Amino acid sequence: MLSPELRLLIESCKAFISGREFRQIKDSMDIESIDWIKLQKMAGYHSIRPTVYHVLKGQTIQYTAGAPDAFVKELHRIAVSKTLLQQQMALETERLLILLEQQSIAVFPYKGAILSKILYASSNLREWSDLDLFVPRKFAKAALKTLLDDGYQFAQEETNHAYNSDTNFLDKLLFENGWHEIGLSKSQENSLPFQLDFHWQLCEDFYPYTINENDIITGAQKFKLVDSEVIVPSIEHIFLMTLLHHGGRESWMRLKYICDLSLFIKLFPDNLFWERILSLCDTAKLKRSLLLGCFCVQKYLNVALPAILESKVKSYGERNTRNILKSWENSVSFWESMSAQLIHKRILLSHQDEKFSPFNYWIKYMEFYSTPNPMEQPRLRTFNKKYKIANFFSKVVTYVWLKGFR
């Protein structure tokens, strides 16, 4: 049974996707029992506050104790501030793409700006908080140097210190530790700083997913992002990269991801498009991730699936969605909580494609986290690199110490 808070969020998403008015569904909901403070927190976790505000604004529904007025006003405040910031971030994304393209660096927008432009009728309806760029590894060092020369800094002060004191730092970062992204930041006058996630891989090494970066490069096309044309991946690769993040890495643990998938399905209902997607998913080992997301889209948002997806989802079953619902109810990032981390791992391990080996996954996971790197929170103790098991358990103990007892 869904909590009244989660139900309101799902019904808001459903109304947004379908175009129905919220007042057509409110009468069947237990409005009186909603905890509005909890709902505000959940809407923030799911990154759907502009969507919920768009659905609820202008409603003349009378709730108890005036709570909804305060709730909607807070959503309005957040929606306005997010709109202004996201407009700035979209322009900054475009500027950086042009800057790097002028130096013959292959670079692509990822998630935020490109998804808002393609999927949402208005760019202020999708909530996003940072810039994302994907630069294939062979171009990544030159791209990072360009961004640092442009005024960006590493988001963590320890990383800036390592960069300034070690001439080989970028090589170690990009080629030794097996990481896939790093956070950068750039201050602005009279505004919040830009936060940039710089990706040179699409996921960590221990995940089984594979997307050929050369295919992304060769399939790229021109697209008007804001004011100018920039190079972006093909729509199929934009979808595949999004699927890897939303379903592969994050296991559909936020309603924003389900909304994005719903809008892809509504925008591209043709079976031929999804035949190409299914073929790409087979190669990328993301087919079951796609089907799990499609099951959620159909069950919770009532979105009609293209026939080719419908036939495959029918046999998929409902058991894999139980932990997704738990994560939606808990509304805690799996990076921030031990219990959320366990739920994430259950979802992740239960919806991998054929020939996936949990044993190999855990071995690679241990090897990955056994290597300390300059981007992470300092460990309670670091051992010599050859002591992989000791370093891994030091990472686990540090994580439990920092997160588990909060």
TrEMBL record:
Keyword line: Transferase
Source domain of life is Bacteria
Q: What GO MF annotations does this protein's record show?
A: transferase activity
Keyword flag Transferase: yes
Task: Kindly give the InterPro entries that the UniProt entry links to this protein.
Answer: NTP_transf_5 (IPR039498)
Which Pfam families does this chain map to? NTP_transf_5 (PF14907)
Q: Does the keyword Transferase apply?
A: yes
State the protein's name: Nucleotidyltransferase family protein
Q: Which organism is it from?
A: Dyadobacter sediminis
Q: What is the lineage of its organism?
A: Bacteria, Pseudomonadati, Bacteroidota, Cytophagia, Cytophagales
